[in-house]
Design goal:
Elements: H1 15-35, E1 40-42, H2 49-61, E2 96-98
């Protein structure tokens, strides 16, 4: 990556792959800005995804007077085996996400 671009997000990708990834991220956020929040969030597009997930927790904690405090909340991930294009409304609570990577494990499609 050229030194002038070093203020952009960190990546170990070569320049060609990094630029392709940057372009995909730009398209994701441009569509969000122009058409509104997507029903499915591409979690890998965020430079700091923890900020996004913290915002989800805050939104739930402030939902109403009966909601638990943010420090008592945790995430529960439920895989939904359908393509992103099939989602026609946002999640009631939390968010539908795509682009989550599993490290040090493998996926069991039967379970």
């Amino acid at each position: 990556m050229p030194k002038l671009w070093s203020g952009a997000y960190f990546s170990l990708k070569n320049l060609g792959n990094w630029f392709t990834d940057l372009n995909e991220r730009y398209k994701f956020f441009d569509t969000w800005a122009m058409k509104g929040m997507p029903y499915v969030q591409w979690i890998s597009a965020f430079t700091y995804p923890v900020g996004f997930t913290t915002a989800l927790l805050q939104k739930f904690a402030r939902k109403d007077d009966k909601s638990p405090p943010i420090d008592k909340l945790d995430f529960d991930f439920i895989p939904i085996p359908k393509p992103v294009s099939d989602f026609q409304e946002p999640a009631k609570d939390g968010a539908y996400i795509t682009g989550l990577f599993l490290e040090g494990g493998k996926w069991n499609h039967d379970k």
